[in-house]
Amino acid sequence: MLNRTNLARIDLNLLVLFEAVLEELHVGRAAVRLHISPSAVSHGLGRLRRLMNDPLFLRQPKGVVPTERARLLAMPVADILERTRHVVANAEAFDPGKSRRRFLIGAPDAASAVLLPPLLAEMRTSAPRIDLGVRNLVGQFEAALGELDQRTLDVALLPLASVPARFVVRTLYDEDFVIARRAGHPMGKKLTLARYCAASHLVVSVSADPHGTVDEYLAERGLTRRVALTVSNFMQALAIVAESDLVAALPRRFVARHAARFKVVCSDPPAPLMTGPIRAIAPQVATTDAGLSWLLGALERSAKAALK
Asked: CATH no. for residue 146?
């Protein structure tokens, strides 16, 4: 958009002014928004017109309209300002009470469903302007580590027993699996391995592959089960189990928090299933990023609150 000579001459405030006039379509309203005088806006527009070799905005009775050149500049200017604001926000001392940062968390929905309620409760009072994005990461654990490296994820909540040394790790809680089924299920209360194998099963699998570690365990003993349905997330699995005769192995903490409203009952499995810690994992930059350090601490506090 600008050559090196122009970059040496440009004032970043001119791009802020351009954004304000483009959104307000009125010099006076843009001036009020920027807390400057209309004449200062007009003067700034004059400088921008010379830099861009275009009128940019044409006067009309009720304000101004952008030229085609201004319309083409809108997205590049917005991108420059967004990146600049992000850099400045990260450079400022982090105050959760004032920060407007947005963090992206990746987690299996069984973990986020346990941790988000207490996390949001804390944020309502201590970090009311911070926003979160949460992505479901069921079965995508190695890919999530790559996204942490690329900084497309801020934190991942994963059931990993070991994590490469290039990451910061906080163990949040230990998780194992229970067998969930609807109240009144014909399987009955006493769950034997034979009854378990005879049931129709629901498995959570993003890839829709019905074969998992449970099947490997059964195969070693000459046993099999029928996986009648696969779904891509745990909350959907819980809802379907509640209204069918399917049974599912689901994370214990997740079921304990949400089973009652679905009228789902659970019991310990008849054979050992997956167990392991749920860990908050972040890139090593978290040790120098006060915002990420705050988020890790908030997740630890949320885990303690969720397990009370």
From this structure: 3.40.190.10
DSSP string, 143-196: HHHHHHHHTS-SEEEE--S---TTEEEEEEEEEEEEEEEETT-TT-SS--HHHH
Residues 99/129, Cβ–Cβ less than 8 Å:
yes
pTM of the full structure: 0.68
Give the pLDDT confidence of 144-195 residue by residue, as tens digits. 999 998 888 999 999 988 899 999 999 999 999 999 999 888 887 778 888 9
Return d(Cα 39, Cα 50) in angstroms, integer.
Answer: 17
pLDDT of 3 strictly over 60: no
247-260: per-residue pLDDT in tens? 999 999 999 999 88
Residue 280 has pLDDT above 50, yes or no: yes
Q: At what angle do helices 68-91 and 12-24 cross, to 10 degrees?
A: 120
148 & 297 share domain: yes
- Is the pLDDT score of 121 beyond 50? yes
Same domain, 16 and 148: no
Residue 82: what pLDDT?
84
Q: Which residues contact 237 (CB under 8 A, 6 or more apart)?
A: 202, 204, 231, 248, 250
Give bridge partners of residue 239 from the DSSP assignment: none
CB-side neighbour CA atoms (13 Å) of 6? 11
Torsion of CA 222, 227, 232, 233, to 10 degrees: -80
